[in-house]
Amino acid sequence: MTEPPAVLAIGQGSQMDTQPRLQKEKLSVEMEIDGGARLMGHMFVAQNQRIPDLLNDDRDFLPFETTEGLITIIRKSTIRRVTPMNQITLPEITSDPYEIFGLAPSASDEELKSVWHRKVQECHPDKLIAMGMPADFVQLANEKLARINDAYDRIQEARAQVEAAKPKWVMGG
Prior knowledge:
This protein is an alpha+beta fold. It has helices spanning 51-55, 97-101, 109-123, 125-130, 135-165, and strands at 24-33, 38-46, 61-66, 71-75, 79-84.
């Protein structure tokens, strides 16, 4: 007599249901969908599968686990961007702090402050804690925030040095 399959799906009996399920990995991701909404949670990928493979397969919908542990089904056509959480979106190693902000060195102080403020708001750890995010998300946010603040401080210090080096002219006599 043959052994029963290792795993059976809920609708037992069909030929497809008797196939053993592939082991899936949960990948922590930040997903941006239509309208600019950002979701943090987990995508499920098979062993030896990459996120691009998952996004380009023939399915119209994908399961997504929210940080609260709820499984939702997302229409793939609404996904605009997926960023694995182990890939920090800021350049890891850069000698140019302007790269972190995506600004040219000629950007005004107001532009710099505006971009800095927006980036801080996007990843502030307190915001993630208040949302009930897991500790690994908060740790990544702390690291990202430290790099953002370091880059801002380096730019401010460099600009202050340039300003201090300018000659001081006194009008009058």
